[in-house]
């Protein structure tokens, strides 16, 4: 894809006014950054809706937007499973059951929760793995933004890299987590505004949803090499009785277990990147409501996937003149960009590009603000220089946190350069993250709801879960794999139809192993923490939230029921 | 702190205005809007964004008076 966009002055004006706002928000907030608490935890002052929008916005980053529209073309509406059976139940579970302990334990990060619940080694392991992951992730976002600027705007790759790093560094350095969160809220609305015109235009061209179904039927049932039932792309559950009957290559129980349970709970309930947004809420109730309020826009985001589904029709209609081919193979990551090129005139094109840039930057900023917190509290304060002089601590840690921000951005530039050298690394890293998160969910879940779980159990559980995931990756590979990054580097014992299926089962095995080992080891080891240390940390020892005075629509249980009713209705409507 | 509703409102009002203005000045250029199915999407999107922006700024004001 060498042909770049022709941008008019208005496109640049939209892009630059967005950058001005982003930097302006950081500038306004800089005065409030008096200590590490304000910088790293946003002073625990956010309302549910601000925290809630930031909660989904931070995971609406670089790879997600391109990935989700690309998946729309590749898998059709089966992509909705990532939301309706994946994210939503996990977010509800987090808000109703887990958040009271994250917030109530007064932990400032997920690793710190592990320290309060288990012990130092479990925290250390998680803090180090998490720090590495966030740097890698923000580096990938940075790489994506630079490659976009290079290919679409004709900029130099390294100039774009340094420029995007400088913008993110400025507003996170100035305003810390508050700045990242407020920008994520702005970014959320910009992404919606930028992508919605594509939904309207593709729907209009296709003659509405009904029209799109009619157009897709003959294409899907005569796909070269592999034909599906004619409504496969426009339904969610109907063709999941057999793995071979749908393009995702997974059966319904694989979807429920792998995507709905292990991967989603592993991400939404344990990843500090998103949890940090809820911890910034102003009260325990606001923190619990954060993921529940976030669930409502989250379940409507799949609407933005519709242009991806329509792209499937366009790319098989020669007269449309639409293609995502690159070197003779479809590159689904290009779907969103090619749709913009196809439909958006100058003006809206600038807005669309702004939406993409915004999502990349929020992915980066989110990771950086999570990294500097874990670095400051769980690595620097815990191992490098613990508090000795209480009065100097706040100012000292603010400096450390700001330096960590600079370091995080610099290290991300390094990662971005590595990603530019080895393109396969991006997919590989995503695989790694699911390996780390799945065992972590098992360990945190046991910690919250089973007071007998011990530190030794948690630590061995995490390690064995991770090892099993790595082993599984070494022993299996997705069909058509040509590189060892995709697996099979020990010996290929099983070939999965698609990479997604391989990831699912990796996560399932990792989570189960981790849980089993953690339970067994816990039963044969002594508990080190007495009951009184675990108040607020473990379910059985924590008094219930008093919710009698709260209006019904602000109670987590009511919100959870509303969310689940909505998502069930949507699933039935698009069965 | 900062009221993010105001920042969002202001951004949408400015950007919406910009798009609507560009849409008005390019009304005669049919070839520009050929790809967007011959609809002047800039005017539409600009107006909708402007309305949304003003609404958000209105919310900010009501929030302040409420306090």
Q: Biggest β-sheet of chain A, characterized? A: 2 strands, antiparallel
Low-confidence runs of at least 5 consecutive residues of chain A = none
Proportion of residues in extended strands of chain B: under 5%
Q: Could you tell me the radius of gyration of chain B in angstroms?
A: 15 Å
Overall number of strands of chain A: 4
Q: Would you tell me the overall average pLDDT of chain B?
A: 82
* Number of separate strands of chain B: 0
Largest sheet of chain B: none
Distance between the termini of chain B: 15 Å
SSE layout:
The complex is a heterodimer of chains A (575) and B (67).
Chain A: H1 9-29, H2 36-41, H3 48-57, H4 62-75, H5 81-104, H6 110-117, H7 120-153, H8 157-206, H9 208-221, H10 252-268, H11 272-279, H12 284-300, H13 306-315, E1 325-326, E2 329-330, H14 335-343, H15 348-384, H16 393-421, H17 425-449, H18 455-475, E3 476-478, E4 494-496, H19 499-524, H20 556-573
Parallel strand pairs in A: 3-4
Antiparallel strand pairs in A: 1-2
Helix pairs in contact in A: 1-8, 1-15, 3-8, 3-11, 3-12, 4-13, 5-10, 5-12, 5-20, 6-7, 7-8, 7-15, 7-16, 7-17, 7-18, 8-9, 8-13, 8-15, 8-16, 10-17, 10-19, 11-15, 12-20, 15-16, 17-18, 17-19, 18-19
Chain B: H1 4-25, H2 41-66
Helix pairs in contact in B: 1-2
